[in-house]
Amino acid sequence: PDLGAASYLGQPGGLYPGGSNQPPVAHAAAAALQAAGVVPRAVDGTPSADGLVGMVCLGMSNSSQEFEDFERAIDLREARNARLLITNTCAGGQSAELMDQPTDLYWTTLAPGRLAAAGIDPRQVQVGWMKQAFMQGPTTTFPAHAAALRDALRAVVQGARSSYPNLRLLYVS
Length: 173
Fold this sequence. Notes:
Layout: E1 7-8, E2 11-12, H1 25-36, E3 53-59, H2 61-75, E4 84-87, H3 96-99, H4 105-118, E5 125-131, H5 144-163, E6 169-172
Parallel strand pairs: 3-4, 3-5, 5-6
Antiparallel strand pairs: 1-2
């Protein structure tokens, strides 16, 4: 993000097109629309005042540790929404090159088991946080490694959308 409109090895800076670190107006509006759709849901996924808003994390062990700190901080807030159920679904060793496969242990066993233990149905999950990487770090040069990680993260996001049909917001670190 520090590059702004400059480039690095031919790749543009900024988090968004044109070297900007501010989301385009249409992007921000789409996010606001999705956020407005986050409402408590019953176990069948339908809106319900008595339902829950599920939040999960996607990542490996260090993501899990950071998410635990986040969860503790939220739990201490007096204004915490009682309908929000935060569930740590991160798992050690579950790196991007594994989670990008829909048949990975994370999607088939780990995350579903943790949600069930917390008393939340995948259809109630509407918010996620993802901090993910390749287990071994860069194995190729820039920008090939960055492109490979981008593609793996896209597949992880698609896995999340498939596993959590009411997922509206996914924060990425």
